[in-house]
From TrEMBL:
Chain intervals with Low complexity compositional bias: 133-154
Name of the protein described by the UniProt record: HtaA domain-containing protein
Domain (Htaa) ranges: 1-121, 170-326
Region (Disordered): 124-157
Length: 381
């Protein structure tokens, strides 16, 4: 998208859809944009690799639809769910919401939380015997179609998992969650306590230990960190448990912390969320060597889902305590689903891997951007 003789510039490429277990999800993409200063001053070009542009709360399966937008793109990577539909059906989400990371990627035209257009994913049954002859002309190479700036496709042939190699990793993650929350729990108002199981507790926060895999070609990783944090206060009215933490590496610059969260808010309302994306971590300053992957003091922000899981104590986008982790690279192993850019089952039918994994889709991301830029032009002109 361009305007004002090139002063307005937004380029979106390599879209990627991630769907959570509850049907919510996010759209990631590589974005290049100019900071919009005014209609006569040209801003610098800023690159946002694999940025989380928008989130969506839910969607519906329906018949074969024409799509909510005019653009199309190839799916790069997804998170598998249980099967939702058969081939020749579509997944429609009516509304998406701009994220805190997506706002600057759009040149600062909009604030985080602003409503954006929905999208439609259309299925395409794939020819297992001849993967190059698929409906939608997607070439069945989710990892190789358009190599993004963070090399999300790696060196992997889309459907050939034997060529995908990762490293076993093990190590620790240090995170205080939110210092002010810890102080509040143990202070004179809440008069509560912090208990841990399988996690080290110090004055500076908490240390998890765990293991998983890291694909250094695609910079995709997942490390499971077992253990439970238990916060209580106000004679048990405040009660929050955080367990089964997972560090998920999305790219060379972005990661997320997932967890199971059970909590009661101050009104006594219960929240029980499994595998919620709790926080986003900026790992652009991480160090990758032949035997380790680590970062120190990485900026971390609370997600929309994390705010809900936190029982409303903090708003989405608020800065949490920084994250540090150190992972040791071990033996080479075949990629598991979490670190394979092509995803599990990509040589099957359109919805066999239900994180919309086999969809040759008409993505309304183009409509999303068109709407945003058009309105912004009217506002700024």
């Amino acid at each position: 998208f361009s305007g004002h003789s090139g002063i307005l510039h937004v380029e979106i490429s390599n879209p990627r859809v991630v769907v959570n277990a509850d049907g919510s999800g996010s759209i990631f993409a590589d974005v290049e944009s100019k900071e919009f200063i005014d209609t006569v001053t040209e801003g610098e070009i800023i690159e946002y690799p694999n940025v989380e542009l928008v989130t969506f709360d839910s969607g519906e399966w329906g018949g074969n639809a024409g799509g909510a937008g005019s653009g199309s793109a190839s799916l790069q990577s997804v998170t598998p769910l249980a099967t939702q539909a058969t081939t020749d059906e579509s997944f429609v989400s009516d509304i998406t919401e701009l994220t805190a990371d997506g706002a600057p990627a759009f040149g600062g035209f909009y604030s985080a939380g602003e409503e954006f257009d929905g999208f439609t994913l259309n299925s395409a049954e794939q020819d297992v015997t001849n993967p190059d002859n698929n409906n939608g002309n997607n070439n069945n190479n989710a990892g190789n179609n358009n190599e993004s700036s963070n090399n999300a496709g790696g060196n992997v042939n889309g459907g050939d998992q034997e060529n995908c190699v990762a490293y076993e990793v093990s190590g620790s993650l240090d995170w205080g969650l939110k210092e002010s929350f810890r102080n509040y729990i143990e202070g004179g108002i809440a008069k509560g306590a912090i208990n841990t199981s399988g996690i080290e507790h110090s004055d500076d926060g908490f240390r998890w230990s765990g293991s998983g895999q890291l694909n250094t070609d695609a910079m995709l990783g997942e490390v499971s960190m077992p253990g439970t944090l238990h916060f209580t206060g106000h004679d048990g009215v405040l009660d929050t448990k955080i367990s089964n933490v997972r560090l998920v590496i999305h790219s060379s610059s972005q990661a997320s912390i997932y967890a199971d969260v059970v909590s009661n808010d101050m009104e006594g309302n219960a929240h029980d969320l499994t595998g919620v994306r709790f926080a986003n971590v900026n790992v652009s300053g991480a160090s990758l060597t032949s035997d380790s992957f680590s970062v120190s003091g990485a900026a971390t922000t609370l997600t929309d889902d994390g705010a809900k899981a936190f029982a409303g104590f903090y708003e989405a986008g608020i800065e949490l305590d920084p994250v540090s982790f150190s992972l040791t690279l071990g033996n080479e192993v075949p990629c598991n689903d979490a670190v394979n850019p092509s995803g599990e089952g990509l040589a099957q039918t359109g919805f066999e891997s239900p994180a919309l994994a086999l969809i040759a889709f008409a993505l309304a991301l183009a409509a999303l951007g068109a709407r945003g830029v058009a309105v912004a032009q009217r506002r700024r002109s």
